[in-house]
């Protein structure tokens, strides 16, 4: 897995940084600076209200910027999705640092404290938006809301996905000075991009509708969705069935039955599965130390974390990180492989 550094022997001028990042993007066949600038103007004029079945979006802003070196830590009330079209850097989200490289797709959920930085500058595409719930289907609202609850939204090697191809097409069409684009066509492509993006993240990051591991867990009830959000937000500390049930105004028996019927697991097994799932993701996609990951996912000691991780996935955290970050294998494929094993091993386990 690529690692980032905050130091460089020489800091290039802003113009040189923009040129370097833009050259990398051009080498990948991506839009140039002039096209991005025209696209920004067009999209921020004609693609701000996107309402087509089954969902409606209100866009706060579109952007495409070469040589982007970073920004100050901030948060906002909407979802922001970014794509690294060229260059390298790092992304800090709620204290967790992720390495950025060309082909990385990531998102900042509402309320998260985040910023990014790059020594040499990156070509970054970004869009910030929220969903108009009154004009969207219930399924679309649930998918969007479940995505906004997820802590880590980060996908390396996304350059050949449908989401990025849609984004590239949108930028090229809206930034074409020789052939003025049709506003309705642009709006429809923009809508397709946002819907595809939230669905893509939801599918890859374990939304309640389709888990990341592809384990075909049945659709969860509203109570189960609330229970999952509760433990995700408090995973770093000890949690009990009684505490979670009380927070949801349920009896322990009701919550146990909900978990058993929805996931085929007992509460302790489900909680342990979620802890290991989160730990595996942090190992694969961040530079956090193993001891910090153990602490953040609620394990009392690193030795206990190592033991549970090996018992669950059959591999040590260190070896898992090395395998997920190797040049020969894609981290997402490794995650799919091990998380499928995780759920299969523990489903309906007493």
Walk me through what this model shows.
This protein has 350 residues and is of the alpha+beta class. Helices cover 48% and strands 18% of the residues. It is built from 13 helices and 8 strands. It has helices at 14-27, 33-46, 138-149, 162-174, 183-204, 222-233, 241-247, 252-263, 267-285, 290-296, 302-313, 317-324, 331-346; strands at 49-52, 55-70, 79-86, 89-93, 96-100, 105-108, 114-131, 154-155. Strands 1, 2, 3, 4, 5, 6, 7 and 8 form an 8-stranded antiparallel β-sheet that branches. A hairpin with a 2-residue loop joins strand 4 (89-93) and strand 5 (96-100).
CA radius of gyration is 21 Å
How much β-strand is present in the residues?
15-25%
Q: What's the total helix number? A: 13
By DSSP, the count of extended strands is: 8
Contiguous uncertain segments of 5+ residues:
1-12, 207-220
Largest sheet: 8 strands, antiparallel
The separation of the N and C termini measures 36 Å
The structure class reads alpha+beta
Q: What is the succession of H and E elements?
A: HHEEEEEEEHEHHHHHHHHHH
Q: What fraction, in percent, of the residue positions are helical? A: 40-55%
The global form is globular
**On the 0-100 scale, what is the average pLDDT?**
82
